[in-house]
């Protein structure tokens, strides 16, 4: 190749100029992404394949039409298929090809036919996305790549080898490589656009986990709690026993664990002690705490920040959930690679890559990412390698998703040097699924129990007497209200927000309080602070709540009423009664059937509630033992038998798509929550100045990470309303401003009518209560 061609090669660009007028050279971008992707894959046998993916992911940008696109002279281009085809035909790197193909449009299909569809001549004639190739001749692109001093090397080990059969474990491996690539790509692109006179500015790396020091800080915190506790001696002994069991089990090899402990036994802190001691023993990189409910994630994150923030700084604990602004992901793409701000680029701008020692996240964020095909959702997955992943209240996992979820987590633990812990007071009976899980992951599901004899912990924590109402005898809301009035301090938990509203209205003259997710987090914190103070001062307090209070909320009532529900929900409700064991007599739990027996839609919740009723009819009052581990296990076996966990339509659909290697369909089908949600910033009166400041900032700078962080205490999650819902008249969209352009945003809104935020009931638009979200 002559000198003139070599000189010309220096002019190929990956991205247009940044704010200081410097364009992004393609050679620099490919080198950086290859190095970062290999770094993200450190310790994985496919690290070289990840580097190859990084080197080839934007090969099509060497095309003349793409370079013209950066000057605004062309559009509608595919610049990724060329690199994917080269990885496939010359290097037999199937996973790299899929990752390159998917780094803008999402992972597609692991099948021979789909991969053959990457042939450039076929795409040039009939592109499935109606795009043009930025360049059709692969040899031209290779010449320009080599002229830029870049020569791709075939990896010694490829993830898929010669096999193209699709399995769940192999698909997870592909997502992990995909994660390494897309995180590297975005970090380097972000660094270019954030550049200053000193060059590219990479996002500051998160602090490393110092497990030894973090464990010492945690244990000192526990000692302080023990000195100041109001808990009865038996409760304190159980908490100490649980902590010792966790520290002892932490010495075991990495893998799968269960932690079965009663509510109020200090599980939240004890399992973190296990994680830190385990990380210290095995040199693990981070701890991920996975929680099912947004309503309790704030409390858990706040506890951990209080413990570690003063010693290690604000960046030590990352709270990441649906309020991070990711929203529903569509199959749209920013295929131009410059300043275009479509939803995918916006999501990747806002997405977290979990570069922190302690991550507190939701089941939705964690598990749907493990089965996603989108770049923004998968971006963080490589961070799960060599980590401790703690699932709290794991009984909330839908039965229809159990088999693929267990298989994926088992593979993650055994292949990537991680440990997965399922922690709950009501441990689901997943052990009998071992053989089924083995069909999708050779290790199957054989966790080790952290507590040697969990039944003893339950026996020592007998704190309540449960009064079971007849499941055929309904009570009116008026009758329930009358019963609650007879208790100076009582909590009543119902299944629907509408029920909570009706009952509260009957009790409002008695100064009853209300708690549901119609209240923003700041409002919920204020309500709970009031409740705790009234309880402490022995003053009257009656709280009407939805399920949002059941898991992880530390309140201690002498009497708790619970509408018939899944057994695990009733056990969690009982955990809010005589929690500290300090009362002179047992706490009283009353299980009742309301006059309108309705449950959240979706089927699973109602089905589990019916199993609870069936057990009562069959076993009778005396055998309905909430503190009996064997009884709880029997309940889950009954539930899974009725649910047909191996034959559930969703399970069968997922497994069919896995066999077909269909990444998009799996991502669509694997949903813990069926409906999309939007985030609404509300005018809660005590925070009204902050609300007005957020409104002003939204108009000036739009949606940013910092804006979202400050908006969280005022944000209510809301299932996306139908297009004709009158609530839209009160919603102002928050838009994203980027490089001087405005991108319409569909996930974040400001509620504009102050009068619609009720001081007790929270967000209450006229004519709608968003009634069944709990």
Structure, briefly:
The chain has 30 helices and 26 strands. It is α/β, with parallel strands linked by helices and 774 residues long.
Account of the protein in words:
- This protein is an alpha/beta fold.
- The chain folds into four domains: 3-193; 211-220 and 252-322 and 340-458, Rossmann fold; 462-626, P-loop containing nucleotide triphosphate hydrolases (Rossmann fold, 3-Layer(aba) Sandwich), CATH 3.40.50.300; 677-763, no CATH class.
- Helix content is 44%, strand content 13%.
- It is built from 30 helices and 26 strands.
- It has a seven-stranded parallel beta sheet, with helices on both faces. Strands 12, 13, 14, 15, 16, 17 and 18 form a seven-stranded parallel beta sheet that branches.
- It is globular.
Number of domains: 4
CATH superfamily of the largest domain: P-loop containing nucleotide triphosphate hydrolases
Cα distance, first to last residue? 67 Å
Structural class: alpha/beta
Q: How would you describe the shape?
A: globular
CATH topology name of the largest domain: Rossmann fold
Strand order of the largest sheet: 7-8-6-9-10-5-11
What's the alpha carbon Rg, rounded to whole Å? Answer: 27 Å
User: Could you estimate the helical fraction of the residues in percent?
Assistant: 40-55%
According to CATH, what is the class of the largest domain? Alpha Beta
| Architecture (CATH level 2) name of the largest domain | 3-Layer(aba) Sandwich
Low-pLDDT stretches are: 1-9, 324-348, 739-745
- Give the count of helical stretches: 30
């Amino acid at each position: 190749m002559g000198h003139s061609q070599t000189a010309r090669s220096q002019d190929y660009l990956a991205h247009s100029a940044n704010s200081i007028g410097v364009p992004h050279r393609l050679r620099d971008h490919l080198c950086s992404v290859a190095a970062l992707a290999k770094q993200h894959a450190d310790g994985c046998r496919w690290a070289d394949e990840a580097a190859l993916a990084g080197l080839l992911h934007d090969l099509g940008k060497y095309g003349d039409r793409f370079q013209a696109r950066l000057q605004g002279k062309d559009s509608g281009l595919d610049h990724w298929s060329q690199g994917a085809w080269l990885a496939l035909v010359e290097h037999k790197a199937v996973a790299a090809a899929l990752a390159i193909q998917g780094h803008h449009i999402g992972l597609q299909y692991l099948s021979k036919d789909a991969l053959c569809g990457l042939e450039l001549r076929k795409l040039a004639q009939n592109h499935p996305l109606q795009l043009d190739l930025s360049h059709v001749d692969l040899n031209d692109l290779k010449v320009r790549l080599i002229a830029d001093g870049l020569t791709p090397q075939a990896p010694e080990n490829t993830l898929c080898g010669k096999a193209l059969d699709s399995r769940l474990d192999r698909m997870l491996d592909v997502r992990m490589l995909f994660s390494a690539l897309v995180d590297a790509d975005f970090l380097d692109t972000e660094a270019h656009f954030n550049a200053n006179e000193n060059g590219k500015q990479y996002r500051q790396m998160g602090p490393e986990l110092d497990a030894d020091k973090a464990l010492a800080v945690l244990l000192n915190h526990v000692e302080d709690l023990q000195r100041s506790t109001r808990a009865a001696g038996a409760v304190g002994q159980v908490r100490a026993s649980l902590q010792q069991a966790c520290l002892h089990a932490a010495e075991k090899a990495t893998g799968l664990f269960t932690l079965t402990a009663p509510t109020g036994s200090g599980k939240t802190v004890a399992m973190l002690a296990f994680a830190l001691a385990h990380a210290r023993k095995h040199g693990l990189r981070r701890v991920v705490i996975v929680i099912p409910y947004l309503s309790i994630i704030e409390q858990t994150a706040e506890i951990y920040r209080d413990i570690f923030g003063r010693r290690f700084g604000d960046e030590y604990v990352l709270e990441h959930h649906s309020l991070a602004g990711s929203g529903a992901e569509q199959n749209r793409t920013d295929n131009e690679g410059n300043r275009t701000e479509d939803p995918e680029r916006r999501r990747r701008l806002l997405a977290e890559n979990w570069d922190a020692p302690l991550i507190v996240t939701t089941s939705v964020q964690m598990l749907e990412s493990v089965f996603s095909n989108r770049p923004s959702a998968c971006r963080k997955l490589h961070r799960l390698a060599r980590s401790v992943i703690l699932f709290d209240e794991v009984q909330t996992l839908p039965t229809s998703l159990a088999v693929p979820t267990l298989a994926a987590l088992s593979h993650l633990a055994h292949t990537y040097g991680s440990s997965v812990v399922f922690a709950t007071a009501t441990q689901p009976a997943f052990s009998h699924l071992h053989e089924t899980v083995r069909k999708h992951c050779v290790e199957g599901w054989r966790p080790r129990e952290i507590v040697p004899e969990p039944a003893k912990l339950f026996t020592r924590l007998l704190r309540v007497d449960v009064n079971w109402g007849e499941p055929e005898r309904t009570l009116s809301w008026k009758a329930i209200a009358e019963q609650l009035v007879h208790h100076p301090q009582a909590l009543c938990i119902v299944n629907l927000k509408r029920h909570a509203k009706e009952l509260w209205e009957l009790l409002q003259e008695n100064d009853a309080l209300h708690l549901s997710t119609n209240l923003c987090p700041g409002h919920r914190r204020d309500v709970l602070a009031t409740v705790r103070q009234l309880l402490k001062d022995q003053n009257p307090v009656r709280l009407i709540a939805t399920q949002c209070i059941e898991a992880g909320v530390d309140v201690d009532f002498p009497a708790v009423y619970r509408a018939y529900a899944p057994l695990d929900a009733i056990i969690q409700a009982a955990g809010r009664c005589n929690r500290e064991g300090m009362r002179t007599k047992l706490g009283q739990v009353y299980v009742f059937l309301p006059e309108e027996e309705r449950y959240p839609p979706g089927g699973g919740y109602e089905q589990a509630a019916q199993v609870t009723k069936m057990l009562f009819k069959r076993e009778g009052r005396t055998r309905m033992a909430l503190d009996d581990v064997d009884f709880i296990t029997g309940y889950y076996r009954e539930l899974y038998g009725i649910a047909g966990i191996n034959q559930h339509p969703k399970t069968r659909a997922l497994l069919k798509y896995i066999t077909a290697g269909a990444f998009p369909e799996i991502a669509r089908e694997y949903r813990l929550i069926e409906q999309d949600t939007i985030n609404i910033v509300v005018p809660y009166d005590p925070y009204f100045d902050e609300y007005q400041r957020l409104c002003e900032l939204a108009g000036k700078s739009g949606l940013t990470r910092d804006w979202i962080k400050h908006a969280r205490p005022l944000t209510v999650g809301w299932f996306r309303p139908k297009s004709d819902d009158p609530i839209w008249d009160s919603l102002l969209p928050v838009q994203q401003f980027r490089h001087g352009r405005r991108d319409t945003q569909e996930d974040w809104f400001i509620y504009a009518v102050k009068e619609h935020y009720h001081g007790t009931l929270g967000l209450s638009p006229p004519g709608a209560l968003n009634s069944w979200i709990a």
